[in-house]
Amino acid sequence: MQVTATGPQTIQKAEGESAILGCRYTVGPLDTGGLDIEWSVVSPDTTQKDQLLMSYSSGTKYIHENHALAKGLGFAAPDPSVGDASLSIALLSPAHSLTYQCKVKKSPGVDMRKVSLVVMVKPSAPKCWVEGGELVGEPVILHCQCAKGSTPLKYKWRRESGALPATATKDSVTGELKISNHSKSFAGIYRCEVNNAVGTEHCIINLRANKPPNRAAVIVGTIVGSLLLIIILLVITGLLYWKLSSRCHSEKEFSNDIREDVPPPESRPVSRHTSRTSSRP
């Protein structure tokens, strides 16, 4: 009995796809016993038993339903007794990222093969945006970011209408494209591609070259604006001072008028009864 290697020892697949784990075998002339095939999940802990997924014995296929990964399992060949015991898995998920073992036995012969399956998430469509005012003569940074996807993710920038600026620096890990001194010749459509082992996505962005504002006009405008602000503040301060002064002057005149208009207090007359009473001995 000899199990022959079919396909790579490690298989990388995208989430949602299907996979076939190869396990072809050749029966020796002395192998006359009954044919038994077992597919198991190899436990990473050597002290623990491997978990049986699927088996074939005496012409009957068995799916061990007690295992969480049993759904979607099957033999790739209609009849696994004719030399092909390959395993088929439909609708892969990250939970299928395990090491599997194929064991074929036909007494007295027995052989086995291990295959590692890595289920990865494809990159999602990235988002492109520009940091900076896209002004000529100023630095500009083009960003590209992917929200989902199994690592490692690699970013690549290219320009639709020609080569990237010679002075531009790009980072394949962060997805940044930095232009230190922007010019009109750098304007155009830029494309960012992000990929991993199982997929590729992209986004595009239109980089403009905006004319910077007239610095002299900005300076003059700033000075004129500052002077106008000072004048306005002085006018407001003067008005407030005039209003407060007028109010104080009015209150003072009103107080003087009150003092002049008030008559002196009248003297109380002496009662006759009181005078007569006091004159008695």
Automatic annotation (TrEMBL):
Residues 254-281 are annotated as: Disordered. Keywords: Cell junction, Membrane, Tight junction, Transmembrane, Transmembrane helix. The keyword Transmembrane helix applies. InterPro entries: EJ_Adhesion_Regulator, Ig-like_dom, Ig-like_dom_sf, Ig-like_fold, Ig_sub, Ig_sub2, Ig_V-set. CDD domains: Ig. The keyword Transmembrane applies. Residues 1-104, 108-196 form the Ig-like domain. Pfam families: Ig_3, V-set. It is found in: Basolateral cell membrane; Cell junction, Adherens junction; Cell junction, Tight junction. The chain crosses the membrane at residues 216-242. Its main location: membrane. GO terms for cellular component: adherens junction; basolateral plasma membrane; bicellular tight junction. It is a single-pass type I membrane protein. SMART domains: IG (SM00409), IGc2 (SM00408). This is Ig-like domain-containing protein. It comes from Echeneis naucrates (Live sharksucker). The lineage of its organism: Eukaryota, Metazoa, Chordata, Craniata, Vertebrata. The gene is LOC115052353.
